[in-house]
Structure formats: C-alpha cells, structure tokens
Q: What sequence folds into this?
C-alpha cells in the first residue's frame, strides 16, 4: 500500500490510523470538513488535506486522482453514549457512508475499509465472528448493522471490494468521549467514586496503537468482503479491567461496582475472534493492557 485516503483523521481512531500509515511510509490524503480542526504538522509531501462541505463528499471527485490503494472511512458521528440514540445523526451516518463508498469506487481504490462495532451483537454469548447474528439495543448498533448490509449489496453492484472491521472497546491517548475506560480514569484521577453495574461481562479492551496497526494491515493484506475482528488476544472480565485501572491510579480509592441496577439479563461477550485477521494479515497484538493503560493514564495526568 502506497497511497491511502482517510475520512475522519481528526477523530480518535482516525488520528491514530494516520500516525500508523505515515510510520509505514504511506502517502495519505485527508478529507475533512472545514469545521474539523486538523492539528497535525504537514510532513513534507506525505500528507495532503482536502476540505469538503458536510454531506457533499462526492464533490471531491475532481480534486483527487485515481491512484489510491485504500479508502478508510472513519468519520462516524454519534458514537458517544450520550448521543448514540440521536436518530438524525445516525440516519446521516448511513447517507454519508454510502456517498464515501461511491467516491471510493469512482477513484478505483482497491479497498473500502470502515469500522463495525460490538454494538451490533449485544446479546452475543461467545466470541464474535463472521457467523454471529446481530442483535442491537440502541440506534448506534442498528445503524451499523444497516450500513454493513447496504455496503454488501453495493459491493456486488459496483464490484467494489470492502472490509468490515469490528473494533471492540478501544482506549488510548486522545480519546475524550465518556466511554467506560475514559470515565473511570477521569473520575479516579479526580479522587471521585465511579459507579457501575455488576461488570461481569467478558470484554476485550484494545490499545489504540494495536487497532491502528490492524487497520493498516487490512489495507495491505486483507481479503475482500471479510469481517475482521480486532482484539488484544487477552480478554478478561470487565471487573478486572476496572479494578486494574483503579490500582494503577490509587489502590485505596473506592469503586461503586454493582451500584447501578442490572437489567437481569445474561452478561454479553464483547470479544472478537481475531484468527481470520491473524491468518490473512499477520496481525499480532503488541501491547498488554498493563502497558497501554499506564500510557493512557499518564496522558490524562499530563492533560490535567
């Protein structure tokens, strides 16, 4: 892979992917809206930035050549817990993703790669793989499922290869939304008491550097129409993740585990079968949770 496009490089996942591609000597064109702040220093000729108005990404057709290998669409909005059920945002996600897919096809890119989510499989009781059936509990998960099936149909019509990359609970520096890892770190650093449900789900928290590497390898070695799960290779109870975060910050701080009501349902499994990704691309996780979470805690300490 020599040249790639990223839509969403100003966000958490996209910024890490941009770093990963540059480290692997890939030339990157970033497509962004004028309102999105891009703080990266333009590194010689390896980053090109093109702006487009919201909802009008197809206008970029005359600004791009057809020499790109991979098109990464990471610009999903409405992921944070407080806005994932906003219907207008989620409907916009469908049309925006479809337009990006058409742009990818117009440019003759080898692959269109976009992330799925474990939110598509909320009742799953074992490792998620290509045979797992979707079940959703919020609009975010429902929209992800809808987009996945739409892209499958379009890929057949347009003969455009695409990859659905399912990302579990990714954490790391620069994540600013209120997911459970960020919430726990911020609350404990403030010497406050975080509250949770029972935390008896089996989960897989993956350091963002490993996620970015997996996305890069998909673009380089991935197979068409695959669903690739990304993981750390070391899933554990969510309870263990949270207590370990607390212990790294201050073992004496209290945790309100079990203080939020349980829905009475069997705990789900938020883990992914990474065997296809390993076999096809050679992906191997490099960061243990201990190493990744200490880097993340240090980042939040430095940010105040």
A:
């Amino acid at each position: 892979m020599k040249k790639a496009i990223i839509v969403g490089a100003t966000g958490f996942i996209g910024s890490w992917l941009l770093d990963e591609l540059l480290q692997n000597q890939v030339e990157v064109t970033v497509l962004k809206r004028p309102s999105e702040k891009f703080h990266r220093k333009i590194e010689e000729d390896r980053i090109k930035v093109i702006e487009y108005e919201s909802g009008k990404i197809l206008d970029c057709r005359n600004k791009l050549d057809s020499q790109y290998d991979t098109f990464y669409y990471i610009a999903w909005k409405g992921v944070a817990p407080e806005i994932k059920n906003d219907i207008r945002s989620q409907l916009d996600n469908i049309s925006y993703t479809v337009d990006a897919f058409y742009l990818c096809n117009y440019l003759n890119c080898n692959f269109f790669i976009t992330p799925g989510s474990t939110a598509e499989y909320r009742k799953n009781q074992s490792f998620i793989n290509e045979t797992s059936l979707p079940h959703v509990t919020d609009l975010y998960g429902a929209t992800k499922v809808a987009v996945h099936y739409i892209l499958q149909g379009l890929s057949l019509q347009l003969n455009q290869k695409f990859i659905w990359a399912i990302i579990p609970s990714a954490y790391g520096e620069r994540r600013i939304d209120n997911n459970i890892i960020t919430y726990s770190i911020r609350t404990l650093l403030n010497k406050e008491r975080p509250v949770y449900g029972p935390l008896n789900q089996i989960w897989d928290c993956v350091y963002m550097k490993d996620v970015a590497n997996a996305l890069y390898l998909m673009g380089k070695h991935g197979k068409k129409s695959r669903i690739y799960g990304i993981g750390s290779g070391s899933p554990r109870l969510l309870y263990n993740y949270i207590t370990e975060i607390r212990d790294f910050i201050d073992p004496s701080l209290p945790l309100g585990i079990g203080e939020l009501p349980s829905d009475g349902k069997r705990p789900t499994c938020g883990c992914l079968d990474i065997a296809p990704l390993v076999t096809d691309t050679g992906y191997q996780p490099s960061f243990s949770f201990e190493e990744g979470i200490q880097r993340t805690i240090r980042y939040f300490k430095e940010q105040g």
